Structures are given as C-alpha cells and as structure tokens.
Amino acid sequence: MRGVILQENGPIDTLGLGEIAAPVSTSDEILVRVHAAAVNPADVKVVTGEGGAGFIHAMRFPMAVGFDFSGVVEHVGPEVTSRAVGDEVFGHLAYSRSTRQGSFAEFVAVKPASVGIKPSSVSHEDAAAAATVGCTALQALRDKGGLKSGQRVLINGASGGVGSYAVQIARLLGAEVWGTASAAKADFVRGLGAAEVIDYRSTPLVSLGETFDVLLDAAAMSSFADTRHLLNRGGAYVTLLPSLSLFGGMMLSLFNNKRCTFVTVQSRAADLDQLGAWMATGDLDASVERTYSLSEVGDALAALQSGAVQGKLAIRVNG
Ligand SMILES: NC(=O)c1ccc[n+]([C@@H]2O[C@H](COP(=O)([O-])OP(=O)(O)OC[C@H]3O[C@@H](n4cnc5c(N)ncnc54)[C@H](OP(=O)(O)O)[C@@H]3O)[C@@H](O)[C@H]2O)c1
After folding, report:
1. Is 263 in the pocket of ligand 1 (CB under 6 A)?
2. Closest by alpha carbon to 136, among 46, 279, 267?
3. Which of 24, 124, 159, 317 can pair with 181 through a Cys bridge, CB separation 3.0 to 4.6 Å?
C-alpha cells in the first residue's frame, strides 16, 4: 500500500512517500481503508525517535507513521459482529510499544472496540482530527479529573490540539472554563467558549489568584507541586506526560486533599461515538486549521513543531 514511510529516525524530512505491505487483520479485527488522518506531537516523536518514541510505537523499520484515522471498513474478521463492511469509522492506533502500523497510509487493521462510527454529516478530516485529542480531553476531564457540571476548570495550553478540545468538552460537561494561551491565539480560545484567557508568557500560571476544581495541563509544562495552590479542596491536577515531577506530585498528593494524576489516552468506541455525536450536532468544532495531502505530511509536522498551529491539522489520504 501507499503511505508515508520512515526508514530510520531522523529530522522530519527523513519521511517520504513509498510502498509498504498493508497490515493484515486478524479474525477479531477490521481492516479500514483510511480516507483522512491528522497529525499529533506523537508523530514528531516517532519520526525523530525522541521523547519516548519507543513507548508509543514498536519502531520496526521500514514503517508507516501516524496514529489518527477516519475511513471505511473494507474487511471484517469472522469473529467481528459489531462492525460491517462499508461502515464509516474513526479512531486512533494504540500509543503502545506493540503498534507496528501507521495511519498516513491506505489501510489500518484495528479492533472494532477501538473505533467509533463517524456520523455521515462529519467529514473524514474532522473525525480523524478529533480522535486522539478528543479522547484525551474527555478521558482527562471526565475520568481522571472527575469534572462535574457547575465546577471551574483551568486548561493550560488551551490553543493546542488537546487544549482546544478540552475547552469545548469542559463547556459541554457544564463547567466554567479558563484557559492559557499565547496572546496571538487568545481570540481563538475565547471563540471555543473560554470565559477567561490568560497569556502564559506575561502571567505565569503559578501567579494566578484564582482557584479551580480541575487543572488540566494540556501543554504538560507545569507540576502539581508548583500549582496545587490553584486547586480547591478535593480538586484534581491532570497532566499528559509522565515525568519525575509527576511522580513527585503523586507522592505529595498522598499527604493533602488534592489529587495529582495523568492520562494515557485510549481509543474507545463509546468515547469516539460521543465525540461524533457532539460534532454532528455542531456542539464540538473539530478546529481543523488546514488539511494537507499525503505528500505534504512533512510540511504539516513542521508546522506543528513550529508552534504556529491553532487547533488541528488534518491529512487527506484517499480521495
Ligand atoms: N497522555 C496522553 O495520552 C497524550 C495524548 C495526547 C497528547 N499528549 C501530549 O500532550 C502534549 C500536548 O499535545 P497537543 O496535541 O495538544 O499539542 P499541540 O497541539 O502542539 O499544543 C501544544 C500547546 O502547548 C501550549 N504551550 C506551549 N508552551 C507553553 C507554556 N510554556 N505554557 C503553557 N502552554 C504552552 C501551546 O500554546 P501556544 O500555541 O498558544 O503557545 C499549545 O496550546 C504533547 O506533548 C503530546 O505528546 C499526551
């Protein structure tokens, strides 16, 4: 199959279009013809081999790159009953050292429980863009943070992929949302529903004179130790990357009334179906700033790496 292939780790221009064997679905998997994908910081880590790439992909070369996908079921294994050929589905490949395929390619083979049904009114580009970041935001806020209607949440890094979805999802869960972003992206974050947007460059997070029930560090740039005074009693700090300061924070949280936790995103049918339903009703905007072709994946990753992106970048794979 045709795909964006990595022969060895290196800078982003190491990537090139090429041919690679299509994944073979097992008896309890579905084969999906990919129509669209989306880029994430994880793709940059996989290409460069830095930032813990070996924990999120098997890294067996040559390999196709990419995690998010949306497409059409081409084949179902004999044990699969919940999905049928022709279903339009979306999701992301597991961030796991056992993952040996990539979504910037014509096919992915996945378990049916890891994909949601894409509503017909939602484009493949929007669905692919939502997969990783939407599941991350939902699982971080609802499952790890325990965010409830009427509570207050602070999203650090509200203009990025996870952050832009977290602002909207927190609003949909009934919370009052504050966010941090660089000044140039403040209007974008306000447009997503944030009540207040703080420029993290002029107002350091630690100096905010406000308290919240949940602090989601979508930029993975802070620590529980430095920010726990921003949490109400019983509040939760949720971050996205494991680190020494996270484990220090978890220890510290054992001795006070605030929680420190992190999320590892899972591609779950029920969560993806919820994201699809919100997008179909117009309650959740996919925030796709631009769509690139398969041959332009390197440009999309370079744009993401530059920090200039607001929201998400999608990739058109088929069609
Ligand atoms: N644990 C998991 O399962 C999981 C899932 C998804 C992602 N992640 C990780 O989470 C991180 C964010 O992912 P993403 O897709 O949202 O990335 P992204 O789209 O590149 O967004 C990064 C965000 O960080 C903000 N930022 C940069 N420097 C900052 C600072 N000093 N203080 C506060 N905010 C700052 C940016 O704001 P401006 O652009 O306004 O400067 C932007 O909003 C990545 O490291 C990714 O690998 C983890």
Report:
1. yes
2. 267
3. 159
The pLDDT, as a whole number, for residue 319 is 61
Residues 6+ apart with CB under 8 A from 278: 168, 169, 172, 284
The two three-digit tokens of residue 97, written as one number? 């050292």
Q: Which of 43, 135, 241 to mutate to test the pocket of ligand 1 (most atoms within 8 A of CB)?
A: 241
- Asked if residue 311 has its Cβ within 6 Å of ligand 1, the reply is no
Which stretches within the chain are classed as H helix? 41-48, 53-56, 124-138, 161-172, 186-191, 224-227, 244-253, 269-280, 297-306
Q: Is the CB of 136 under 6 A from ligand 1?
A: yes
- Span from the CA of 156 to the centroid of ligand 1 (angstroms): 9
Residue whose pair of structure tokens reads 């509200």 in the numeric block: 158
Nearest ligand 1 atom, CA 139? 3
Residue ranges of domains in the chain, CATH in brackets: 2-130+266-316 (3.90.180.10), 133-262 (3.40.50.720)
Contact 20, 66 (CB under 8 A): no
Backbone φ/ψ region at 94: left (φ over 0), alpha (ψ -120 to 50), beta:
beta
Structure confidence by residue, pLDDT tens digits, 23-53: 999 999 999 999 999 999 999 999 999 999 9
Q: Are 36 and 123 in contact (CB under 8 A)?
A: yes
pLDDT in tens, 132-147: 999 999 999 999 999 9
Ligand 1 near 132 CB (within 6 A): yes
Query: Are the C-beta atoms of residues 6 and 46 closer than 8 Å to each other?
Result: yes
- Evaluate: CB of 179 within 6 angstroms of ligand 1: no
* Mean of pLDDT values over 282-310: 97
By three-state DSSP, how is residue 308 classified? Answer: coil
